[in-house]
User: What shape does this take?
Amino acid sequence: MLITFLAIMTPFLILIRPLQRNIFFVLYYAAMVLAAYATETYYFRLPAFSHKVFLIFIVYHLICINAATFLAYGADKRAAVNGSWRIPEAHLHALEFLGGWLGAYIAQKVFRHKTKKKSFRIMFWLMLVLQLAAVYIILKYLGFINF
Assistant: This one.
């Protein structure tokens, strides 16, 4: 399981330069590796690259990316209040696009952060639409959707 997780996530971290500087993506990466290691060590082992491992990866991914996105919004709100260095909007949008849009939406409501700036809200909804389009294209390519 750990090998599969690393094989899926490491190219993103190596090839996409902005993700290397996004501390919350690195936090997500570490949480995913730790979850895979703990599951494999303490609960059960599955063959590498099996369909069950991919399903577990999706579940862990959604939990970890949404948690990292929520924390990123919280950290950005705290930085805004304290007047210190902020998290670039591109980093927040990258986390949203990678699946953290629900964590971002909840964080916007909880922290009352990034709710007024119209350009940010438009980009937020665009990231959601792009993510849904990507999921649709993947499912159509795999033959799960026929229309």
